Amino acid sequence: MKLVRFGVPGSEKPGLIDADGKIRDLSAHVADWKGDALSPQSLARIAALAPASLPEVTGNPRLGSCVAQPGNFIAVGLNYADHAAESNMPIPQEPVLFNKAPSCVVGPNDDVVIPRGSEKTDWEVELAIVIGSRASYVEEKDALSYVAGYAVCNDVSERAYQIERSGQWMKGKGCPTFGPLGPWLVTPDEVGDVQNLSMWLDVDGERVQTGSTKTMIFGVAHIVHYISQFLILEPGDVITTGTPPGVGMGMKPPRYLKPGNVMTLGIEKLGDQRQTTVAWSA
Fold first, then answer.
1. What parts of the sequence cross the membrane (predicted)?
2. 8 A C-beta contact, residue 174 and residue 155
3. Residue of 71, 43, 24 whose CA lies nearest to 186
């Protein structure tokens, strides 16, 4: 299934995409795509519905983030060897973990706000994992059974805040609008081999990132297993899994986003995003 949330910010409704690409309204069957609504039992119940029996959503509604505000929004850093090289950082021996603020989550086509005073706002196309079952001390061989689905994430980053301001990376990762998610939450049965998905990102029509999940250092199963050794993952939690090379920080000279830039990005089978950058205002 391809699950969506549609409507104005703060009042999104849950839906799914039918075989013809139309949005079908699921609000009579589920309150929102969050928490236990993403459990295997809940998703099986939704999968048993005939899409044609659901109300069709007309027009061109805004798409919200494919998951309502997650309890945890965890990120994996330097998870592609060539991105670690362009960042002048060593290949990690274990996954590098940091937090993005759940409040930074926005829809896939919403504006991205460049923070007040920022001069180094950057882009990162990433595969996001959405958890469907409570996970604690999960074995790697079982890890994928805890996944509700996958989505596109733009891990927007402010490099000066992240790297030059000392302390943890989260300062440059959780600014408002720095977590576009969607357009869809795609269930694993439609994704197939999650470790063989092409991914890309353009800035103003220029291709800057081209990659594949097959070059991840730590794969999805290992990431879910690894994180579950340190904390409990709950249904609706999001893990974004790192980016391939081509970020602005790695260019020579470095290149960063300014108001009016347009980012378009996507991952095979998971859909596309489009964001315009805007200046911060009070």
1. none
2. no
3. 43
